[in-house]
Amino acid sequence: MKNVKVILSLIIVLMLTACNGGASGEKFDPKVEKKKATETVNSVLTSFKDQEKLATANNRDAANPIAWEKIQKKNNKKLSGELSKDAQNRLLYLLTINKAEDTPSGGTKANLLFSQDTKVKEVKLNKDDETFTFDIERSGFDHKAITTEKQDDTWKIVQVNDSE
After folding, report:
1. Which residues form the signal peptide (predicted)?
2. Cα separations (Å) of 74 from 32, 43, 65, 109, 126?
3. What does the domain layout of the chain look like in residue ranges?
4. pLDDT of residue 17
5. How does the average pLDDT of the chain come out, rounded?
6. Are 134 and 126 in contact (CB under 8 A)?
């Protein structure tokens, strides 16, 4: 009787494993995952109103950290904590436009506005590491590559590079 229970338990475990797609859980479905990764990238590209002011400072270098902090806070779940400083700057460049303004003292100040002028042109799957890379186009000519990776069951931006 004891052996029958053990065998039945083993059969039930095997059946449950087979129904769940194997020991690894879910299988990677490229179409479904591409849709989810694209939603993540589009969400970041439209996370503020077009032309919404994100930062004002004496120059763009001083305004960048202020704008990045707002973008990071709003998109915290979509941006990897591993995103390098260079990648942050490239993403900030894609998402903002500087509308410089003359000051009464004769200088200028930078006003960084959020821009929804950036669009996804192409998406490529890297089957080996199961990541998607988006060819992003700004203003119809400037290209960057945004790479997304599934982390903690969520697609996140892990890298932003100059396109080749």
Report:
1. 1-23
2. 25, 10, 14, 25, 28
3. 37-162
4. 54
5. 88
6. no
Q: What is the pLDDT of residue 9?
A: 62
Query: Both tokens of residue 79?
Result: 């941006």
Nearest partner of 78 among 154, 129, 159, 164, judged by Cα = 154
Distance of alpha carbon 51 from alpha carbon 40, whole angstroms: 21
Dihedral (CA of 43, 120, 149, 19) sign:
positive
Pull the structure tokens for residue 41.
């990238």
Structure tokens at 148: 């997304």
Name the residue with tokens 């009464």.
104
- End-to-end distance of the chain based on CA atoms, in angstroms? 67
d(CA 114, CA 50): 6
Which tokens sit at 136? 């992003």
Burial class (CB in 10 A: 0-12, 13-18, 19+), 18: exposed
Q: What is the pLDDT of residue 21?
A: 47
Question: Token match 């989810």: residue?
Answer: 36
Q: Which two tokens stand for residue 160?
A: 């932003």
Q: Write the pLDDT tens digit of every residue in 106-162.
A: 888 999 999 999 999 999 999 999 999 999 998 878 889 999 999 989 999 999 998
* Cα separation values, 51 from 55, 79, 103, 113, Å: 11, 22, 20, 5
